[in-house]
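Lab meeting, item 3. Inverse folding demo.
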């Protein structure tokens, strides 16, 4: 009677072992045929990082202003759009403030950068990060009355009355540099807290001042709107312009720098310059001078 019982136990054990092997084989076959146990959801695309920047509160003709639909427009706005295409990891948001507010806000970190056409000078380089690559140029000229043919260069300003300048004006540094190189023949610089290109040009037209040093695009816009009887006596220089960044925004500044270099190499910024300024400011000063001379005539 014991032997059949043993046989029965062995049979049960064998069935259990075979069942286990069959289950293992099924699992391996399922793996081999890529039968998934669960479905993994696709990874969501990371949202771009929002970067807060300062923009001019006072319209800068052709550089940045509000169009007829009350939307930001101009060379700087189009440049920023191109940057966002190159740097999809960032989304730029702006707050309109005056020049002084841009400088203070960027210095304190309220803004990551100030989107304006800033000149480079030693004082600002101590407080802000500048990209290596300029994003454009300010074409600097001297506005005078039509009958003045004696003011064409900075040399001609010695002994003349130049319209006063704001302490944060980039044009002040052009004159400071000139004065350092011409001791005894300095150009007198008067100060004013706040002003506008239109008010400055009116001072020249009235005869109170002999000339005004300014961005030619400001001149053309103001003369057209106010019907001023003035001319550009001479194109002085084309000054490289930059955005300025908070000192802690090293990575952002470097990425913007690299993207700007690409936009210059592929001709994108030259096209924007021709669109807004009617001349490619990235070409030589002589080329730019001829371009503005042609337009003046």
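The presenter then showed the designed sequence:
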């Amino acid at each position: 009677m014991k032997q059949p019982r043993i046989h029965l136990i062995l049979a049960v054990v064998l069935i259990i072992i075979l069942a286990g092997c069959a289950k293992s084989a099924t699992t391996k076959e399922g793996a081999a045929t890529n039968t998934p146990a669960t479905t993994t959801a696709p990874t969501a695309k990371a949202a771009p990082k929002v970067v807060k920047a300062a923009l001019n509160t006072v319209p800068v003709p052709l550089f940045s202003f509000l169009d007829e639909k009350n939307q930001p427009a101009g060379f700087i706005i189009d440049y920023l759009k191109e940057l966002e295409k190159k740097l999809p990891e960032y989304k730029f948001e702006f707050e309109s403030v005056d020049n002084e507010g841009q400088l203070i806000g960027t210095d304190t970190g309220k803004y990551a950068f100030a989107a304006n056409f800033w000149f480079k000078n030693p004082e600002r380089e101590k407080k802000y990060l500048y990209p290596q690559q300029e994003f454009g140029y300010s074409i600097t000229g001297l506005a005078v009355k039509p009958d003045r043919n004696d003011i064409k260069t900075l040399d001609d300003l010695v002994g003349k009355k130049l319209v006063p300048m704001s302490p944060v004006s980039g044009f002040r540094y052009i004159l400071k540099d000139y004065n350092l190189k011409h001791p005894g023949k300095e150009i007198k610089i008067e100060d004013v807290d706040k002003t506008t290109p239109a008010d400055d040009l009116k001072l020249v037209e009235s005869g109170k001042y002999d000339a005004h040093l300014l961005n030619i695009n400001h001149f053309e816009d103001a003369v057209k709107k106010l019907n001023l009887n003035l001319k550009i006596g001479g194109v002085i220089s084309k000054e490289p312009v930059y955005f300025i960044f908070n000192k802690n925004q090293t990575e952002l500044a470097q990425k913007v720098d690299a993207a700007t270099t690409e936009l210059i190499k592929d001709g994108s910024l030259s096209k924007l310059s021709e669109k807004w300024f009617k001349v490619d400011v990235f070409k030589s000063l002589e080329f730019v001078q001829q371009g503005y001379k042609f337009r003046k005539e």
